[in-house]
Design brief:
With 290 residues, the chain is mainly β. It folds into two domains: 2-15 and 208-286, Immunoglobulins (Immunoglobulin-like); 47-206, Jelly Rolls, CATH 2.60.120.260. It has helices at residues 2-13, 71-77, 105-108, and strands spanning 47-48, 53-56, 82-88, 92-100, 114-122, 131-138, 144-150, 164-172, 179-187, 193-206, 211-216, 221-227, 233-241, 244-248, 253-258, 265-274, 277-286.
């Protein structure tokens, strides 16, 4: 057991492309909303300008009782209790945060990583206050190497209603990227409120992964093979299946086990050489056998 724990710790320490949503507090659920939507509140994990704020679904309170997207819209988009808003008499307002990606560096510098930026953007009826979200890929000096942008949404896209529209943009992460700065920007065009609304933002990176294949044998036995993507050199693969961890250090990297359930999940981590460094890549397979 000690040897397994040490091996697992060594895998965790290797550089790897981070998984999942990299944005902290992506849906304005951390911290408190402005009860009226008119006041500025601290937003955990975000640095704001002007009167950028967090408003509650279902409408604000006194003094002006602004109309905001209803709770039914939150239910439609799984928006929770709150959303981001440009704010009262904002002019132009922003909220930004920077995400460091040191573990992905060896893969980024070999042109092996892509990015996806997504979010729900909304507004007020026929008003045209534009809202955009940008992801700026920053080099070590802080210089902007490239940018992904989603938005704005037009009143027609929202059916001139209090609806949110999902937007997505994808692209390659440029060589030399060391961090990503995500910024929401709202501009007040009509009325006295910057009705650029944002919710459920997401920034994810996609790097190389193991090519998993299954072979169904007799007596509920299964063999799983993990292939190494082109351009990388495989060093070892550790498989987690049927409650056990096994490591194969010679290609073809395989494991064989007995199925205890109808559709077991096999997770794997491959140690590879990328450029002049070692890194880790993931793999996952749901086994389906007759």
């Amino acid at each position: 057991m000690l040897a397994v724990a040490v091996a697992a710790a060594a895998l965790v320490a290797l550089p790897a492309v981070p998984q999942g949503n990299l944005i902290r507090n992506p849906g304005a659920e951390a911290g408190q909303a402005s009860p009226s939507g008119e006041t500025t509140v601290p937003i955990p994990d975000w640095t704001t300008t002007s009167t950028f704020t967090v408003a509650p679904y279902g409408g604000g309170g006194a003094p002006d009782f602004f109309t905001f997207p209803p709770r039914s819209e939150s239910q439609r988009i799984a928006g929770g209790e709150n959303f981001f808003a440009g704010g009262f008499k904002a002019g132009s307002s922003t909220a930004s945060q920077t995400v460091d990606v040191p573990g992905a560096t060896p893969f980024i510098d070999q042109h092996l990583v892509g990015a996806s930026l997504a979010g729900w953007l909304g507004g007020f009826l026929s008003q045209t206050d534009p809202g955009t979200v940008t992801a700026e890929f920053l080099g070590g000096s802080g210089a902007v190497l490239s940018t992904l942008t989603i938005g704005p949404v037009t009143p027609d896209e929202r059916d001139r209603d209090l609806k949110f529209v999902q937007k997505t943009a994808t692209g390659d992460v440029p060589t030399g990227t060391r961090a990503v700065r995500v910024t929401m920007t709202g501009v007040e065009v009509d009325g006295t409120y910057d009705d650029a609304y944002f919710d459920n933002l997401s920034l994810s990176l996609a790097g190389p992964s193991l090519l998993m294949r299954v072979r169904c044998l007799g007596h509920r036995r299964v063999t799983v093979t993990a292939g190494i993507p082109a351009g990388l050199k495989g060093r070892s693969v550790t498989f987690h299946a049927a409650g056990h961890a096994t490591t194969d250090r010679k290609p073809p990297f395989t494991t064989t086990f007995v199925r205890r359930t109808s559709s077991p999940v096999v997770a794997a981590t491959g140690v590879v050489t990328v450029g002049l460094k070692r890194g880790a890549i993931p793999g996952r397979l749901v086994v389906h056998c007759p």
